[in-house]
Amino acid sequence: MAVIDIRGDIVGNDDKWIYDWFDMDATCPRDITDAINNAAEDEEIEVFINSGGGSVMAGQEMYSALKQKRNVTIIIQSMAGSAAGVVATVSYT
User: Fold this and answer.
1) C-alpha 7: how far from its chain's center?
2) pTM of the entire structure?
3) Residue 35: which residues within 8 A CB-CB, separation 6 or more?
4) What is the pLDDT of residues 11-24, one digit of tens each?
5) How far is CA 7 from CA 25, 37, 52, 70, in A?
């Protein structure tokens, strides 16, 4: 089973380095697509979310990447606000 953690701010790919530099939690669409590409084709994917949100465009890109996969389970650990809420709807639709 592949596990994807969505933590901290949801940011665009071009801004992720800033969060990495300051050792702050953030997730960008590239993090999601890299995790999906590293998973086996029919492998189940668990997505753990604890994020107040961020960029709606980045959240929509994450949603679109996850929506194309089967067997995606979303687990909201504490909060899925704003753009994180968009990602959380993957397993509900």
Assistant:
1) 8
2) 0.93
3) 2, 4, 45
4) 999 999 999 999 99
5) 6, 20, 9, 22
